[in-house]
Write a structure and sequence with these properties.
CATH topology of the largest domain: Jelly Rolls
Protein name: Germin-like protein
Order of helices and strands: HEEEEEEEEEEHHH
CATH class of the largest domain: Mainly Beta
Keywords: Apoplast, Disulfide bond, Manganese, Metal-binding, Secreted, Signal
Radius of gyration: 21 Å
Number of strands: 10
Pfam families: Cupin_1 (PF00190)
Subcellular location: Secreted, Extracellular space, Apoplast
CATH superfamily of the largest domain: Jelly Rolls
Main location: secreted
Structural class: alpha+beta
Helix content: 10-25%
Number of helices: 4
Length: about 230
């Protein structure tokens, strides 16, 4: 009986631990305004705190999200991010924000955020959005969840999963998204696979995608646009 109780306790602690680490760690103080630590000798998981005595309101403020991003690019979208890199007051708070602008038929290409869940709200236009589940069991395919969103609609992309948004309308579209990390990161799938530096060995990619190496060589020779 004692052994069962011990095993149950360990299981509960494991579950609680996994939940508590689902996003950035909780802060241990009211705030920890980040300083520019690019030249600092100390490295921390986040940013070094600014002296609270010299913190002011501007450390928690950023303007400019009313300005549309430039969508004149290969994918027809632009992501304007607000994270700890440009809003120091976000440090340790476990949240960030992006504005996404889409040209007509513009795409925010398939990508992942390794450290954040994303909740997206559409302000203008019509978006086709979706995400793909992680590797399933044997003889199963990765399940795709999709939805068409209109102004006022909200959709959630779970942490780490591949997702995308595509403007299916003839007019521009605008969305805002909140992310559960001060620095969520982004891995754009095509850019990472075919535009890495140095390139991934074409034998590896040809076998992975089950195509001729000439196809891989062609894809690796293309310019992969970063819309962030």
């Amino acid at each position: 009986m004692a052994l069962k109780s011990f095993v149950l306790t360990i299981a509960i602690l494991a579950i609680v631990s996994s939940i508590s680490h689902a996003s950035d760690p909780s802060p241990l103080q009211d705030f920890c305004v980040a300083v520019n630590d690019s030249m600092a000798a100390v490295f921390v998981n986040g940013k070094i705190c600014k002296d609270p005595k010299v913190v002011n309101a501007d450390d928690f403020f950023k303007s400019g999200l009313n300005i549309p991003g430039n969508t004149s690019n290969q994918v027809g979208s632009a992501v304007t991010a607000v994270n700890v890199g440009n809003l120091p007051g976000l440090n340790t708070l476990g949240i960030s924000l992006v504005r996404i602008d889409y040209a007509p038929y513009g795409l925010n290409p398939p990508h992942t955020h390794p450290r954040a869940t994303e909740v997206l709200a559409v302000l203008e236009g019509t978006l086709y959005v979706g995400f793909v589940l992680s590797n399933p069991g044997p003889n199963m395919k990765n399940k795709l969840f999709t939805k068409i969103l209109k102004p006022g609609d909200v959709f959630v992309f779970p942490i780490g999963l591949i997702h995308f948004q595509f403007n299916i309308g003839k007019n521009k579209a605008v969305a805002f998204a909140g992310l559960s990390s001060q620095n969520p990161g982004v891995i754009t799938i095509a850019n990472a696979v075919f535009g890495s530096d140095p390139p991934i060995n074409d034998d590896v990619l040809a076998k992975a995608f089950q195509v001729d190496k000439k196809v891989i060589d062609y894809l690796q020779s293309q310019f992969w646009w970063d819309n962030n």
